[in-house]
Amino acid sequence: YSAAVPGLPTSYAAILRIKSASSSSALFNSKNRPRLSSPSLGSISSPGWRGTAQHYRSPTNLYHFSEAFKRDESVDYGPVFVQEPDDVIFPTDSEEKKVSLNCQARGNPAPIYRWLRNGTEIDIESDYRYSLIEGSFIISDPNEAKDSGQYQCLTTNVFGSILSREATLQFALDTVPNKSHLQGCAGVIIYVGLRKQTKKAK
């Protein structure tokens, strides 16, 4: 790094080039503080240079920090879950004709994703309704007979595989859930439906 002092010839300002931490410490050592003189600037003492020297060294420190960060990023490791799928209750009369089971993992190399339904791996290509977007499993036009069940996300790279918790996909009427749905779910949708049903009975 080099800096030109205003009013000084460029050749003279070259003495401010900092080649290494050792040379900079020698340059700005309290015993070796230079005293500059110039016809245009007069005499310049160096008390304020200590902070300047630290400022000049800081890019070097940031560079080493950046390099250390890059080394950490280059470390290979197996997949680790960032997000696992949650239970889903899909209203049969919903206008939203799509179900999303979310899954996200990090790893190096980047993990690949597969999905299981009731313990059996799903062939994404076997059904046009299935798609995989950044690890999340999307079902278009969900069907209760075909799609209800227990889902798990399986992520893999060369260092290992991890399997997510089970997420239940259930189908229910928005206002009158049946007994099996009551046993499997503790969400707000169930209780709202019961209150609506009670009001109608009155």
UniProtKB/TrEMBL annotation:
SMART domains: IGc2. It holds the Pfam family Ig_3. One of its GO terms (cellular component) is synapse. InterPro entries: Ig-like_dom, Ig-like_dom_sf, Ig-like_fold, Ig_sub2. Residues 85-170 form the Ig-like domain. One of its GO terms (biological process) is synapse organization. This is Ig-like domain-containing protein. It comes from Mauremys mutica. The lineage of its organism: Eukaryota, Metazoa, Chordata, Craniata, Vertebrata.
